[in-house]
């Protein structure tokens, strides 16, 4: 009989119940756990997505807050520039250059009202205003863009020259202070 077991292709059974209920219950048990695992993975993915969306909203809110601060700083700067232009215009009107003074005063008033308008608007509104203005007055828009670019380049050039001059003078001072009496080191 042992020879019969050796030649048999079926694996020997160690525990016989008379039915295949053990094999079926094992596959039934793994199916719910697989479904639970899929559901848990989907829930975790949804949680990660919500957290990512919240982070994106936080970053966008912070960026808008910083941009709004910068807009308000620019508006205050423009208002002070407008005030200075009005003062210059008033002084020029008292002197021999009354016509130029009048224009300078009007320009200062316009710049101040523009600054107040900027400070009271949201960034999205300002972008829409600029877009509308660009469509209605393309040449004026391009001219203002060119002037803004020119002003920015002059500012950057002046600040770069100032920085290189201050760096050179600080290097000169450090060279003079490090030398000993008689020019010997």
Automatic annotation (TrEMBL):
<feature type="region of interest" description="Disordered">
    <location>
        <begin position="162"/>
        <end position="185"/>
    </location>
</feature>
<feature type="compositionally biased region" description="Low complexity">
    <location>
        <begin position="166"/>
        <end position="185"/>
    </location>
</feature>
<feature type="compositionally biased region" description="Polar residues">
    <location>
        <begin position="19"/>
        <end position="30"/>
    </location>
</feature>
<feature type="compositionally biased region" description="Basic and acidic residues">
    <location>
        <begin position="36"/>
        <end position="47"/>
    </location>
</feature>
<keyword id="KW-0472">Membrane</keyword>
<feature type="region of interest" description="Disordered">
    <location>
        <begin position="1"/>
        <end position="47"/>
    </location>
</feature>
<keyword id="KW-0812">Transmembrane</keyword>
<feature type="transmembrane region" description="Helical">
    <location>
        <begin position="139"/>
        <end position="156"/>
    </location>
</feature>
<keyword id="KW-1133">Transmembrane helix</keyword>
<protein>
    <submittedName>
        <fullName>Nutrient deprivation-induced protein</fullName>
    </submittedName>
</protein>
